[in-house]
Amino acid sequence: MSFEEQVDELERTVMSEKPFFSRPGGKIFIIWLILSVIGVLIGFYAPHHLLPAMMSSTGTDVFKTVVVFTVLAAPVAAFVYAVGIYSLIAWRHKGDQDEPPEDGPPMHGNGPMTVVWLVVSSLLVVVLLVWGLSVYMAQQVSHPNTLQIDVTGRQWLWTFKYPGTGVESRTLVLPLDRAVEFNVTSVDVTHGFWPVALGNQVDANPGEVTVIQTTPDKLGKFSVRCSQLCGLYHAFMYSSGSVVTPTQFSQWLQAQGVPPALADRTARIAR
Ligand SMILES: [Cu+2]
Prior knowledge:
CATH architecture of the largest domain: Sandwich
Bound molecules: copper (II) ion
Structural class: alpha+beta
Shape: elongated
Helix content: 40-55%
Largest sheet: 5 strands, mixed
Protein backbone atom coordinates (compact mmCIF):
# COMPACT_ATOMS: atom_id res chain seq x y z
CA MET A 1 0.00 0.00 0.00
CA SER A 2 1.44 3.37 -1.03
CA PHE A 3 1.54 6.30 1.35
CA GLU A 4 -1.40 8.04 -0.47
CA GLU A 5 -3.48 4.87 -0.25
CA GLN A 6 -2.76 4.63 3.46
CA VAL A 7 -3.85 8.26 3.93
CA ASP A 8 -7.06 7.60 1.94
CA GLU A 9 -7.76 4.49 4.03
CA LEU A 10 -7.21 6.47 7.23
CA GLU A 11 -9.51 9.27 6.00
CA ARG A 12 -12.27 6.79 5.19
CA THR A 13 -11.95 5.20 8.65
CA VAL A 14 -12.09 8.59 10.36
CA MET A 15 -15.15 9.62 8.22
CA SER A 16 -17.04 6.44 9.00
CA GLU A 17 -16.46 6.93 12.71
CA LYS A 18 -17.75 10.50 12.67
CA PRO A 19 -21.27 10.83 14.07
CA PHE A 20 -23.95 10.71 11.35
CA PHE A 21 -24.94 14.36 11.65
CA SER A 22 -21.35 15.60 11.11
CA ARG A 23 -21.04 13.68 7.84
CA PRO A 24 -22.26 15.17 4.51
CA GLY A 25 -25.16 12.66 4.37
CA GLY A 26 -26.28 13.67 7.87
CA LYS A 27 -26.11 17.38 7.09
CA ILE A 28 -28.05 16.89 3.84
CA PHE A 29 -30.62 14.90 5.87
CA ILE A 30 -31.06 17.80 8.32
CA ILE A 31 -31.52 20.33 5.48
CA TRP A 32 -33.96 17.90 3.79
CA LEU A 33 -35.95 17.48 6.99
CA ILE A 34 -36.28 21.25 7.55
CA LEU A 35 -37.24 21.94 3.92
CA SER A 36 -39.72 19.01 3.93
CA VAL A 37 -41.49 20.36 7.02
CA ILE A 38 -41.67 23.84 5.41
CA GLY A 39 -42.98 22.30 2.14
CA VAL A 40 -45.61 20.19 3.90
CA LEU A 41 -46.81 23.24 5.91
CA ILE A 42 -47.02 25.25 2.65
CA GLY A 43 -49.01 22.36 1.12
CA PHE A 44 -51.52 22.46 3.97
CA TYR A 45 -51.89 26.23 4.36
CA ALA A 46 -51.06 27.97 1.04
CA PRO A 47 -54.05 26.63 -0.97
CA HIS A 48 -56.42 28.33 1.51
CA HIS A 49 -54.85 31.67 0.50
CA LEU A 50 -54.17 30.98 -3.20
CA LEU A 51 -57.47 29.34 -4.18
CA PRO A 52 -60.97 30.74 -3.74
CA ALA A 53 -63.37 29.09 -1.29
CA MET A 54 -64.77 26.19 -3.31
CA MET A 55 -68.50 26.11 -3.99
CA SER A 56 -69.09 22.65 -5.51
CA SER A 57 -68.34 18.96 -5.08
CA THR A 58 -65.79 19.16 -7.91
CA GLY A 59 -64.19 22.23 -6.36
CA THR A 60 -63.75 20.45 -3.01
CA ASP A 61 -62.13 17.46 -4.78
CA VAL A 62 -59.80 19.76 -6.73
CA PHE A 63 -58.84 21.60 -3.55
CA LYS A 64 -58.03 18.33 -1.72
CA THR A 65 -56.02 17.14 -4.75
CA VAL A 66 -53.93 20.33 -4.73
CA VAL A 67 -53.19 19.79 -1.01
CA VAL A 68 -52.35 16.06 -1.36
CA PHE A 69 -50.11 16.52 -4.42
CA THR A 70 -48.25 19.46 -2.84
CA VAL A 71 -47.71 17.61 0.45
CA LEU A 72 -46.43 14.45 -1.30
CA ALA A 73 -44.21 16.42 -3.70
CA ALA A 74 -42.67 18.50 -0.88
CA PRO A 75 -40.15 15.85 0.39
CA VAL A 76 -39.06 15.09 -3.20
CA ALA A 77 -38.45 18.76 -4.01
CA ALA A 78 -36.81 19.18 -0.57
CA PHE A 79 -34.33 16.39 -1.37
CA VAL A 80 -33.26 18.09 -4.63
CA TYR A 81 -32.89 21.47 -2.87
CA ALA A 82 -31.06 19.90 0.12
CA VAL A 83 -28.40 18.26 -2.11
CA GLY A 84 -28.13 21.47 -4.15
CA ILE A 85 -27.77 23.77 -1.14
CA TYR A 86 -25.23 21.51 0.60
CA SER A 87 -23.20 21.12 -2.61
CA LEU A 88 -23.10 24.88 -3.18
CA ILE A 89 -21.88 25.52 0.35
CA ALA A 90 -19.62 22.55 1.21
CA TRP A 91 -18.37 21.33 -2.15
CA ARG A 92 -17.89 24.62 -3.98
CA HIS A 93 -14.53 25.38 -5.55
CA LYS A 94 -12.33 27.00 -2.94
CA GLY A 95 -10.07 29.88 -4.03
CA ASP A 96 -6.82 28.19 -2.95
CA GLN A 97 -7.50 24.93 -4.80
CA ASP A 98 -5.79 24.40 -8.12
CA GLU A 99 -7.71 21.29 -8.98
CA PRO A 100 -11.29 20.28 -8.24
CA PRO A 101 -11.69 17.78 -5.39
CA GLU A 102 -11.89 14.13 -6.29
CA ASP A 103 -15.25 12.51 -6.97
CA GLY A 104 -16.86 10.40 -4.28
CA PRO A 105 -17.71 6.74 -4.85
CA PRO A 106 -19.94 6.22 -7.93
CA MET A 107 -23.69 5.71 -7.43
CA HIS A 108 -23.73 3.21 -10.29
CA GLY A 109 -23.85 -0.25 -8.74
CA ASN A 110 -25.01 1.05 -5.36
CA GLY A 111 -27.78 -1.52 -4.80
CA PRO A 112 -29.49 -0.16 -1.68
CA MET A 113 -29.69 3.38 -3.13
CA THR A 114 -31.19 2.10 -6.41
CA VAL A 115 -33.78 0.06 -4.49
CA VAL A 116 -34.70 3.06 -2.30
CA TRP A 117 -35.27 5.48 -5.17
CA LEU A 118 -37.15 2.94 -7.29
CA VAL A 119 -39.44 1.89 -4.41
CA VAL A 120 -40.06 5.47 -3.18
CA SER A 121 -40.80 6.90 -6.64
CA SER A 122 -42.99 3.91 -7.61
CA LEU A 123 -44.99 4.22 -4.38
CA LEU A 124 -45.47 7.96 -4.91
CA VAL A 125 -46.62 7.50 -8.51
CA VAL A 126 -49.04 4.71 -7.55
CA VAL A 127 -50.54 6.73 -4.67
CA LEU A 128 -51.02 9.78 -6.93
CA LEU A 129 -52.48 7.64 -9.73
CA VAL A 130 -54.98 5.94 -7.41
CA TRP A 131 -55.94 9.31 -5.88
CA GLY A 132 -56.35 10.96 -9.30
CA LEU A 133 -58.41 8.09 -10.75
CA SER A 134 -60.72 7.85 -7.74
CA VAL A 135 -61.41 11.62 -7.82
CA TYR A 136 -61.96 11.41 -11.59
CA MET A 137 -64.33 8.42 -11.28
CA ALA A 138 -66.32 10.15 -8.52
CA GLN A 139 -67.04 12.97 -10.99
CA GLN A 140 -68.27 10.64 -13.74
CA VAL A 141 -71.49 9.72 -11.93
CA SER A 142 -74.61 10.71 -13.88
CA HIS A 143 -77.35 12.38 -11.85
CA PRO A 144 -81.07 12.34 -12.64
CA ASN A 145 -82.67 15.73 -13.43
CA THR A 146 -79.40 17.36 -14.37
CA LEU A 147 -79.80 21.01 -15.29
CA GLN A 148 -78.44 21.55 -18.81
CA ILE A 149 -76.64 24.79 -19.65
CA ASP A 150 -75.12 25.58 -23.05
CA VAL A 151 -71.93 27.59 -22.59
CA THR A 152 -70.58 29.46 -25.61
CA GLY A 153 -67.31 31.36 -25.78
CA ARG A 154 -66.67 34.09 -28.32
CA GLN A 155 -64.11 36.87 -28.52
CA TRP A 156 -64.41 38.07 -25.79
CA LEU A 157 -67.38 37.07 -23.73
CA TRP A 158 -69.34 34.10 -22.42
CA THR A 159 -73.02 33.40 -23.04
CA PHE A 160 -75.11 30.90 -21.10
CA LYS A 161 -78.26 29.39 -22.60
CA TYR A 162 -80.83 27.50 -20.53
CA PRO A 163 -82.38 25.02 -23.03
CA GLY A 164 -86.17 24.80 -22.98
CA THR A 165 -86.60 28.27 -21.47
CA GLY A 166 -85.32 30.57 -24.22
CA VAL A 167 -83.06 32.30 -21.68
CA GLU A 168 -79.69 33.53 -22.92
CA SER A 169 -77.64 35.29 -20.27
CA ARG A 170 -74.25 36.94 -19.75
CA THR A 171 -74.21 35.79 -16.13
CA LEU A 172 -74.24 32.18 -14.95
CA VAL A 173 -76.93 31.50 -12.35
CA LEU A 174 -77.08 28.02 -10.78
CA PRO A 175 -79.49 26.49 -8.27
CA LEU A 176 -78.03 25.03 -5.06
CA ASP A 177 -77.46 21.26 -4.69
CA ARG A 178 -78.60 20.44 -8.23
CA ALA A 179 -76.27 18.63 -10.65
CA VAL A 180 -75.54 20.82 -13.64
CA GLU A 181 -74.11 19.83 -17.02
CA PHE A 182 -72.22 22.43 -19.04
CA ASN A 183 -72.21 21.85 -22.81
CA VAL A 184 -69.21 23.94 -23.73
CA THR A 185 -68.35 25.24 -27.20
CA SER A 186 -66.95 28.24 -29.04
CA VAL A 187 -67.95 30.13 -32.18
CA ASP A 188 -64.50 31.45 -33.11
CA VAL A 189 -61.19 30.44 -31.49
CA THR A 190 -60.36 28.09 -28.61
CA HIS A 191 -61.34 29.49 -25.23
CA GLY A 192 -61.19 27.90 -21.80
CA PHE A 193 -64.36 27.75 -19.69
CA TRP A 194 -63.23 28.21 -16.11
CA PRO A 195 -65.73 28.87 -13.30
CA VAL A 196 -62.90 29.03 -10.77
CA ALA A 197 -64.72 28.29 -7.49
CA LEU A 198 -66.59 25.36 -9.05
CA GLY A 199 -63.29 23.57 -9.74
CA ASN A 200 -64.15 22.89 -13.41
CA GLN A 201 -62.05 23.89 -16.35
CA VAL A 202 -62.36 22.74 -19.94
CA ASP A 203 -61.45 24.01 -23.40
CA ALA A 204 -64.23 25.56 -25.48
CA ASN A 205 -63.43 24.40 -29.01
CA PRO A 206 -65.11 25.74 -32.16
CA GLY A 207 -67.35 23.09 -33.76
CA GLU A 208 -67.13 20.75 -30.74
CA VAL A 209 -69.27 20.41 -27.63
CA THR A 210 -67.45 19.29 -24.49
CA VAL A 211 -69.58 18.23 -21.55
CA ILE A 212 -68.53 18.70 -17.93
CA GLN A 213 -70.60 18.53 -14.80
CA THR A 214 -70.59 19.55 -11.18
CA THR A 215 -72.97 20.09 -8.28
CA PRO A 216 -72.84 23.54 -6.63
CA ASP A 217 -73.09 23.05 -2.86
CA LYS A 218 -72.62 26.56 -1.46
CA LEU A 219 -74.57 29.77 -1.97
CA GLY A 220 -72.63 32.78 -3.19
CA LYS A 221 -70.93 34.50 -6.07
CA PHE A 222 -68.05 33.25 -8.23
CA SER A 223 -66.31 34.39 -11.38
CA VAL A 224 -66.15 32.69 -14.77
CA ARG A 225 -62.85 33.23 -16.54
CA CYS A 226 -61.23 32.21 -19.81
CA SER A 227 -58.20 29.96 -19.28
CA GLN A 228 -56.89 29.96 -22.88
CA LEU A 229 -55.07 32.91 -24.40
CA CYS A 230 -57.65 33.79 -27.07
CA GLY A 231 -56.70 37.19 -28.39
CA LEU A 232 -56.27 40.84 -27.51
CA TYR A 233 -58.94 41.11 -24.79
CA HIS A 234 -58.51 37.61 -23.32
CA ALA A 235 -57.72 39.10 -19.90
CA PHE A 236 -61.11 40.85 -19.86
CA MET A 237 -63.08 37.75 -20.84
CA TYR A 238 -64.87 37.05 -17.59
CA SER A 239 -68.43 36.85 -16.37
CA SER A 240 -69.94 36.68 -12.94
CA GLY A 241 -71.78 33.65 -11.63
CA SER A 242 -73.86 32.90 -8.59
CA VAL A 243 -75.32 29.93 -6.76
CA VAL A 244 -78.86 30.65 -5.50
CA THR A 245 -81.73 28.75 -3.88
CA PRO A 246 -84.21 26.99 -6.24
CA THR A 247 -86.83 29.67 -5.42
CA GLN A 248 -84.38 32.47 -6.29
CA PHE A 249 -83.46 30.55 -9.45
CA SER A 250 -87.11 30.43 -10.53
CA GLN A 251 -87.48 34.15 -9.76
CA TRP A 252 -84.38 34.89 -11.84
CA LEU A 253 -85.75 32.84 -14.77
CA GLN A 254 -89.03 34.78 -14.52
CA ALA A 255 -87.11 38.05 -14.55
CA GLN A 256 -85.60 36.87 -17.87
CA GLY A 257 -89.14 36.50 -19.28
CA VAL A 258 -89.85 32.83 -18.53
CA PRO A 259 -93.50 32.11 -17.62
CA PRO A 260 -93.85 31.31 -13.88
CA ALA A 261 -95.03 27.70 -14.37
CA LEU A 262 -92.12 26.88 -16.70
CA ALA A 263 -89.66 28.71 -14.43
CA ASP A 264 -90.80 26.65 -11.43
CA ARG A 265 -90.66 23.43 -13.43
CA THR A 266 -87.12 24.22 -14.60
CA ALA A 267 -86.15 25.05 -11.02
CA ARG A 268 -88.00 21.90 -9.87
CA ILE A 269 -90.30 23.75 -7.52
CA ALA A 270 -93.71 22.12 -7.01
CA ARG A 271 -96.67 24.51 -7.01
CU1 LIG B 1 -59.78 33.62 -23.69
